[in-house]
Structure prediction request, 141 residues.
Amino acid sequence: MYAEERQHEIVTRARGLGRVSVAELATRFDVTPETIRRDLDALSGRGLLSRVHGGAVPAEKLRLAEASLDSRQTSFPEEKLAIARAAMGLLPRREGLTVIIDAGTTTGRLCSLLPGMGCRSWSRTRYRLRRCSPLGVTWRS
Prediction:
């Protein structure tokens, strides 16, 4: 059996069963586990399967929809604020301190606490920097 034929059958089997294992496929096709791993890596690279420990699953099975920004901003507000306050406790108290924060709804809570500390803070959002301020956000390219 050619590699292309084996790989086609692997994808068909994964879609039918919901998952495939390296050991099962190696036995089924009478090849080494290394050959199957290479097949799975190739199929994963083409977006047909997603690799998981010991095997693979159909790529569609692991595609998860990300929640909207509005949904993420309003979910777990108390927990996000608690994390932000804990992070504030880790920052040095120093005049002129500059803090750079990665994008996120939890780090946004931290951003809102920083101006009261007397420091400058910047947050990265999709390769742009935004200056955090108590009155809103100002963008810098």
In short: DSSP finds seven helices and seven strands in the chain. The beta strands are 20-21, 49-52, 55-58, 98-102, 120-125, 128-133, 136-140. Helices lie at 3-17, 22-29, 33-45, 59-62, 69-74, 77-90, 105-113.
